């Protein structure tokens, strides 16, 4: 089983080849990342310091869309303070095509 831990847009993900993951919005022209922190290939383990040298993970953008609406409400008792904020996150689905070492 081959997998890697990568960093994309400030978040770390554990990914395998041919896996589809949902991340924060990413530029559709981006095709790979070199922020690879760990690669495991059966019994061989490569740990980066902080990243693994000459390692990259290639992926393709599958879908850009808006996620479900999130509601944030603030309330303070006895002071007539109420605040409501809602937003829909911009998300991207990517498919991992290859893990290079």
Automatic annotation (TrEMBL):
One of its GO terms (cellular component) is ribonucleoprotein complex. The keyword Magnesium does not apply. Pfam families: Ribosomal_L21p (PF00829). Keywords: Ribonucleoprotein, Ribosomal protein, RNA-binding, rRNA-binding. GO terms for biological process: translation. PANTHER family: 50S RIBOSOMAL PROTEIN L21, LARGE RIBOSOMAL SUBUNIT PROTEIN BL21M. This protein binds to 23S rRNA in the presence of protein L20. Part of the 50S ribosomal subunit. Contacts protein L20. This is Large ribosomal subunit protein bL21. The gene is rplU.
């Amino acid at each position: 089983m081959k997998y890697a831990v990568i960093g994309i847009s400030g978040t770390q993900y554990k990914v395998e080849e041919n896996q589809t993951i949902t991340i924060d919005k990413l530029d559709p022209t981006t095709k790979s990342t070199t922020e690879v922190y760990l690669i495991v290939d059966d019994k061989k383990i490569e740990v980066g310091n902080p990243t693994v040298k000459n390692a990259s993970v290639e992926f393709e953008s599958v879908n850009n869309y808006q996620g479900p609406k999130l509601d944030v409400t603030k309330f303070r008792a006895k002071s007539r303070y109420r605040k409501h904020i809602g937003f829909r996150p911009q998300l991207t689905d990517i498919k991992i095509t290859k893990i290079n070492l």
